[in-house]
Structure formats: structure tokens, C-alpha cells
UniProtKB/TrEMBL annotation:
InterPro entries: Phage_holin_4_2
PANTHER family according to UniProt: SLR0284 PROTEIN
TM regions (residue ranges): 6-22, 29-46, 52-74, 86-106
Protein name per its UniProtKB record: Putative membrane protein
The UniProt record lists the keyword Membrane: yes
Keywords: Membrane, Transmembrane, Transmembrane helix
Length: 113
């Protein structure tokens, strides 16, 4: 539970920081917290289903279609969270790439496994 909370805090901070660099509008910090929670749940439950249904496309594109799946997850979370606005699909792709890389690095530093 402690590791999950640390990962959630890291994700929230990264969402706020990345929103300043990209054209993502966040109304308040609670929206960023809800976005982190929504991304966590969507990555846990929806992403495996999408990956399963798109295995042929993912193999054909040598795994690059997973970037599209990550962007779809971001846009779905954007749809459900009122205080977040991700304007374009390209912004969602760049956001998901930067968020994934940043989360990987910071989780290796701060989370005990």
C-alpha cells in the first residue's frame, strides 16, 4: 500500500509538471490526483483488454501500436476527469511517452521493491 501511494504521488507530480510543458489544461491539483488514479485503474483493467484485441496490429508495427494504446488510455481518462483537457491525440501520445519514461526513472529511485 505504501508503494502504491508513493507511485500515485509521483504520478500526480509528473502530471502537473508535464502539463506545464505540454498544452494540457489542469484546473486544480485534485484533478491531477484524479487523473493519476484514473490512469492507474485504466492501465490495470482496460489496457490488457486493448492489448489483447490489438495483438496482430502490435506485432505488425513491432510494438509501436502500444504508444497509440497508451494515448487512448490518456484520452479516456481525460474524458472522465472534468478538470483535465488534453486537446489533441498527438499531445496524448507525447504526454504518455514522457509520463512513462519519467515514472520509470522516479519509481526506480523512490519505490522499494
Amino acid at each position: 500500500m505504501k508503494n502504491y501511494l508513493i507511485k500515485l504521488i509521483i504520478s500526480t507530480i509528473l502530471i502537473v509538471v508535464l502539463s506545464h510543458f505540454l498544452k494540457i489544461e489542469i484546473t486544480d491539483y485534485t484533478a491531477a490526483i484524479f487523473m493519476a488514479v484514473a490512469l492507474s485503474f485504466l492501465n490495470t483493467f482496460l489496457k490488457p483488454i486493448l492489448v489483447l484485441f490489438t495483438i496482430p496490429v502490435t506485432i505488425f508495427t513491432l510494438g509501436l501500436f502500444l504508444l497509440v494504446i497508451n494515448a487512448i488510455i490518456v484520452k479516456v481518462a481525460d474524458y472522465f476527469i472534468d478538470g483535465i483537457n488534453v486537446p489533441t491525440f498527438i499531445t496524448a501520445i507525447v504526454f504518455s511517452i514522457l509520463l512513462s519514461i519519467s515514472q520509470y526513472i522516479l519509481n526506480k529511485i523512490f519505490v522499494d521493491e
